[in-house]
Write a structure and sequence with these properties.
3-stranded antiparallel β-sheet, MAIN-like, Aminotransferase-like plant mobile domain-containing protein, AminoTfrase-like_pln_mobile, about 250 residues, single chain, mainly alpha, 10 helices
């Protein structure tokens, strides 16, 4: 899905950190836990994701080596300014390249390691990306390298919503230039509740009775191309937004 930075910027300008709501002409709106659950089907029940960012006793490098069987170079390699593991930040693209492709005769241990790395990419590069675009804080490894059942019992949807709120509040500071976190969820929310800002059509539009409804509802926007509206265009539309243009 193409990200519409102009749309997201216009919405950020309407965000008030005192109320955690968007202030619009006809009133206030906000993204809720129910929205996250409907759009992504991420679990919203279960244990809160509360992990310490403190380094393990023997360091993150040893922690990763023991659990994934991957040794991380201590020095930066050619073309990189910093090592693959620097200040508790792990370079995800390097991790993927290091593992390579899964062989056809892979053992159970190899398959499990690939599954772990898939989760690392999903969480660090998609659900909770930071502004660097390719690094993930190693605190997530405490969760993703746990027992599989423990991972499944976490409230991932709640964590996504908390990070969206946090990033939106940070963006109210005029000095902030970028936002991290799952902003794709916010964009899906805007398209669903303010449909005049949504793409006219998508390659995967379906109604609630269609067979593909087994996917998360937000997946119907896969492949959607943004409208190309300018930032000023979104601002002007929000200034005159009418009640009948909002879907609840």
């Amino acid at each position: 899905m193409e990200m519409d930075n102009n749309l997201l910027t216009a919405m950020v300008e309407r965000w008030r950190k005192e109320t955690h709501t968007f202030h619009l002409l006809e009133g206030e709106m906000t993204i809720t836990l129910k929205d996250v659950a409907m759009l992504t089907e991420l679990p919203i029940d279960g244990d809160a994701i509360i992990e310490s960012s403190q380094k393990p006793l023997n360091g993150w490098g040893q922690f990763i080596s023991e659990r994934l069987g991957i040794n991380i170079p201590e020095e930066a390699q050619e073309g990189l300014r910093v090592p693959h593991l620097h200040k508790s930040m792990l370079l995800i693209p390097w991790l993927v390249r290091t593992v390579g492709e899964l062989p056809e005769d892979a053992t159970d241990a190899q398959i499990e390691r690939y599954a772990r790395i898939y989760l690392i990419c999903l969480v660090g590069g998609f659900l909770f990306p930071n502004k660097s675009g390719g690094n993930m804080h190693c605190m997530w490894l405490r969760v993703l390298l746990e027992d599989w059942d423990e991972i499944g019992r976490k409230s991932w949807g709640s964590a996504c919503l908390a990070m969206i709120y946090s990033e939106l509040c940070k963006c109210t500071d005029p000095k902030t230039k970028q936002a991290g976190g799952p902003m794709f969820i916010l964009q899906l929310w805007v398209w669903e509740h303010l449909p005049t800002f949504a793409p006219i059509c998508t390659a995967n539009s379906w109604g609630p009775d269609e067979p593909l409804r087994q996917w998360a509802y937000g997946a119907r926007w896969i492949g959607a191309i943004t409208s190309g509206t300018s930032l000023d265009g979104f601002r002007q539309h929000l200034d005159r937004l009418e009640f009948n243009e909002v879907t609840f």
